[in-house]
Amino acid sequence: MLTxxxxxxxxxxxxxxxxGFDRAAALKKGQTDEQIIKYLITKTGNVRPVAGINMSKQHxxxxxxxxxxxxxxxxxxxxxxxxxxxxxxPVPYKLRADTYKQxxxxxxxxxxxxxxxxxxxxxxxKALLCHAIQFDYTQxxxxxxxxxxxxxxxxxxxxxxxxxxITNYEQDxxxxxxxIKSAERTHDQRRLRNLYQSQRAAIQAGVDIKAATKDYEAVxxxxxxxxx
Length: 228
Prior knowledge:
Elements: H1 8-19, H2 23-28, H3 33-41, H4 53-68, H5 72-85, H6 90-113, H7 119-164, H8 166-170, H9 178-220
Helix pairs in contact: 1-3, 4-5, 5-6, 6-7, 6-9, 7-9
């Protein structure tokens, strides 16, 4: 419906049905269809328990498959489910924004340029998608920065611990046998390597999100707030 354009009521009804939202109740409370659409198109749902991380990954994988096959509507739905199962993960936010953006490039921009009779409705659909794209890229960047800050803190604390305890690792203690100290140090070294890898990945993810945001600004002909 977004591709060919549609009234706010039609789009709000479609999104409400997809997400189990009570549109009638919202209208009675004074909300407009446009407000409902903006809420639903960026709705992340409740954060699921940690046990839902595997489900999040499954939906992300399915979303990737749908995206490769150019089924952007289905891909966006899968990424939304991935977000609902793991709301603090920045990856599906970026993937959903990428999907909306590709959907926009492939369908709405071409439809707008065709000069169809429903150009005004197509333009409105484009504006809604641009709003959703900006929301998702902002969420992705902010969550990624929080994750990076946590990784940096863990890296600092572990590095300090290893530096301060180095003599304890290397000396043969009667209280803690040397082989236990050695095993502890090996474990910490492995963990520190993993933290460095995660750190590099998060830094690169931030760069990728910024680049994608620049592309979004060009496509939507807008300027988002600068990434911090």
